[in-house]
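Exam revision sheet. Question 4 asks you to relate a sequence to its structure. Input first:
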Amino acid sequence: MRCVIIGGGEIKNLTYARSLIDEDDYVIAADRGYARCQQMNIKPSLLLGDFDSYEGEIAVDCPVMEYPIEKDDTDTMLAIKVALEKGFDELLLLGMCGGRLDHTLANIQSIVYAVTHGAKAVIADEDLYITALCGGQSITVPNREDFVLSVFSHTNTCKGVCLEDLYYPLNDGELTNTFPLGASNHFLSGKDAKISLQEGIAVIISTREQ
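Answer key, structure tokens:
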């Protein structure tokens, strides 16, 4: 099964977000993500967090893991670690962007953690798709109308980068985390993008073109 982690960030279209969740998914609500679950009429499999942002009622039959506010892990990171401990290797994260920029960056770092620990992890919304890729891996990013795609080096460098079926292709290239060479690429009509790299860690962001 797949694990879906729902955070307390912005979800632009609750109907779209709900359509991404399958009936057999294991759903973790991270703190205020419980309110998002209520809005989507979803009963989470687990609620966890330090509860500094959610103070409402909790269903009596909902399992809860409560953590102290003073801790190293964010609520999203806690949820990812629990999911990995339970053996899930595919993670879908909703409600992870919007609001505070530092929270968004922390959530991106959190999916990098998941990917470096052997899982596939995606942050998704109606206008957004974010994932990460480690050296020796490849990924196909779905083509969505009016979307652009950017590839950023999370480590100092990414080597052996190949971008296929994009307007600006790249073969055995190098990206660094000090220059945004991989920003704002375009899908080719009717084709999904193929991305691979030999060394480093890359963050891939597909977002609707404004």
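Marking note for examiners. The first strand starts at residue 3 and ends at 6.
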